[in-house]
Amino acid sequence: MKHAIEVVNVFKKYPIERIKKQRKKTFRILTDGLPKTSRIQALGAVTIRIRPGECVGIIGRNGSGKSTLLGTIAGILKPDQGHVHTLGKIISILDTKLGKPELTGEENRTFLSALFGMSRKEIHQTKNTVFAKSNLARFAHTSLLKYSRGMKDRLVLCTALCAKPDILLLDEVLAESDHTFRTTFANALRDLSAKGKTILFISHELALIENLCTRTIWLDKGKVRMDGRTQVVLQKYTEAN
Amino acid sequence: MTLFSFSHKDLNVLLAFIKAEFKTKYRGSILGITWYLLNPLLLYATLYLIFAKRFGTGIEHYPVYLLIGIIQWNFFQTAVGSSLGTIWENRTLVKSISFKRELIVIAPLAVTFGSHLLEILLLAGIMTYLKMSLLPLAFLPALLVLQVIFALGFALALSSIFVYVSDVQQIWTYLSRIWWFGTPIFYAVNEDSRLFWINIHFNPQFGFIHATRALLINTHLPTLAFYFTLCAVSILTLTLGYAIFHKLKDRFAELV
């Protein structure tokens, strides 16, 4: 079977201290020439293969490379070395603060749907579904400025689900959501997975990972520390932390 | 590097950005989209009142001369200015979703172009009031296309450099102000003068304004050589701007 996601020997480094020393930079250029920026390794020799229909949790401490991995798979970040192959339409929610605050819920839904690759016909057809799923029908014509964080998350996530992704990449998306929506969304993800769609899910909430994912990858300092059945990986991770 | 190959999906995204940009620009203000027309009108009225007697004497159809200068310059400065910080402003999208980054820069430019068309309507109204022929306006699109290409080149280059070095915004504000004063917008220059020679050879913005004035006021089409020079400058600016953007865009998500 062809893999839905194939990450092979990927390395990614980031420059650091760039912003902090910005003000001094001009003087350093004048006195010492161009500065040598140090770089931190976010991903080092990461190789992962994920089959269609798998729902995979990604865990690890802050700065372990989880978001960088998802950004690289989504095509947002370019790896320094190695390659990434994906199969089908990718939708990535790496930040739920995606909408335009001045626009209404419906205007934001239309805007995000286009960004998620939906045609104008599909955008029109899914209007009611998105607001029914997110339970935001009453607020469709309210400015996003009046939405709570949880409401914004619901709108973004339900819009993403209606865009029919083959691969769904989610980074800490349910942190602000209430219990009811978490249950609804978890069910929607299971349905998606059952239809052969692939899901990668970053979270610090281990219960959520255990509830949703059959396989979990533990990243540590930019490397895969463990990759296997969720219960086993979570147990080792809990022991180590 | 493919220069602007857009898929159907990209065009949908562009349209979504344009709609969002159009709706958010004056949302919350009482006069709303009327500001698209009010802004140049107020600037025009102010400059006309200040400069008509000082610089306008001896210039044929000074109201039209001045308005052409203002709206042509206004389009360029607003288009580049509104695109400059747009990648930073859309950073949550840039960091979260993969789409053609050029679209974020093109959208504000397209909205500015829409308001520029309204300004041209205003110009046509004043020309009608002054009993001038509107026929030359039919040739204006040939110049408008080049102006859009020229502005887009600047917008792509500056917006991408801004992600790396935010000082670009301050530098651009200062340089564009000098450029504005150096360009004969509200004053006229003698065709034998050194200032005219410098402007006609080194200032493409003056090239556009001069060609538009010659077309609409004197009903003279620009010579083919002059038009092709403007074509070459515009295409070269866009190619250079796109090359810079293309070179820098891979790291946008890391830096915003």
Summarize the structure.
Chain A has 241 residues and is an alpha/beta fold. Chain A contains 9 helices and 9 strands.
Structural class category of chain A: alpha/beta
Biggest interface in this structure? Answer: A-B, 30 and 26 residues
> How far apart, in Å, are the first and last alpha carbons of chain B?
23 Å
| Large-scale geometry of chain B | globular
Question: How would you characterize the overall build of this protein?
Answer:
The complex is a heterodimer of chains A (241) and B (256). With 241 residues, chain A is an alpha/beta fold. Chain A has nine helices and nine strands. In chain A, the strands form two sheets. A six-stranded mixed β-sheet of chain A has the order 5-6-7-3-8-9, with helices on both faces. In chain A, strands 2-1-4 form a three-stranded antiparallel β-sheet, covered by helices on one side. The two termini of chain A are 36 Å apart. With 256 residues, chain B is mostly helical. Chain B contains twelve helices and no strands. Helix content of chain B is 75%, strand content 0%. Chain B is globular. In chain B, helix 3 (62-84) runs antiparallel to helix 10 (204-216). Chains A and B meet through strand 5 and helix 3 of A and helix 1, helix 5 and helix 12 of B.
